[in-house]
Design a protein that fits this description.
About 10% of the residues lie in helices and about 50% in strands. It is mainly beta. The radius of gyration is 17 Å and the shape is globular.
Length: about 240
């Protein structure tokens, strides 16, 4: 379940990676809007009265198999995902449902689409300077994300909402006609308050949702080392 620390250890990792310079940009949505995009068996996880959609650009480093060194150059790239928060009532678990992911590596896109994740190929950049982190993601046809995020003070005691939307220890996928949950393990996020003085994206609309309204909730993390576990099947939804 969601929280500051993993709900289970990943004893057998399928991949190891590091997520750096990650921005969490969130907007509230009506639960019915989110429910329309979910597969059978999952329901929106309502937090503080709303369902939530997050756009999370970040820098991926050190992508590798356990026991195998990372390939220099290839294993470092910028990625962005569009995520929402869900529950699987039959099992009592919660986690992420990805609405879209954009990555520049063809092999990653192909492999993860095969396990049910909605990956798309695109080019991405993440650049840190002394004051801010700039992100840019482009797919065929033009930019889908351009942002400048300014990190602020470290958050010593995250509030329950921030813990809920950042502390998710599994992602659901759908393949072969059923739901699977992929466990994730990493240290608690080191989180900072942040602002986004520049933010332009149509990724949320591309996923089939209305244009987000209002100023987003923005937070930022310098990063964590991550272990991705073996997917396991979930109980079927009641017929």
């Amino acid at each position: 379940m969601s929280g500051r620390r993993p709900d289970q250890s990943v004893r057998i990792a399928t991949t190891l990676q590091r997520w750096e310079s990650l921005a969490f940009v969130h907007w509230p949505y009506a639960p019915d809007d989110i429910a329309a995009l979910l597969p059978p068996g999952l329901v929106p996880d309502v937090v503080d009265g709303s369902a939530w959609v997050g756009v999370t650009p970040f820098l991926m480093r050190g992508v590798r198999l356990p026991g195998v060194p990372a390939v220099p150059g290839w294993s470092e790239f910028a990625e962005v995902n569009v995520r929402t928060y869900v529950r699987h009532p039959r099992s009592g678990t919660d986690g992420l449902w990805f609405l879209a992911l954009v990555c520049p590596r063809r092999a990653v896109v192909g492999a993860l689409r095969a396990v049910g994740l909605p990956y798309h190929r695109g080019e991405g950049w993440a650049h840190d300077d002394a004051e801010a982190v700039s992100y840019r993601v482009r797919v065929a046809g033009g930019d889908v994300l351009s942002a400048r995020v300014v990190p602020g003070e470290r958050i010593v005691d995250p509030d329950p909402w921030l813990v809920s939307v950042t502390g998710r220890w599994g992602a659901y996928t759908r393949r072969a006609g059923r739901l699977w949950r992929v466990p994730v393990e990493h240290a608690p996020w080191p989180l900072h308050v942040a602002s986004a003085p520049h933010l332009s994206t149509d990724l949320v609309q591309r996923c089939g949702l209305p244009r987000p309204v209002g100023v987003p909730h923005v937070s930022w993390s310098p990063g964590v080392d991550v272990r991705i576990g073996v997917p396991h099947p979930m109980p079927d939804a009641p017929g």
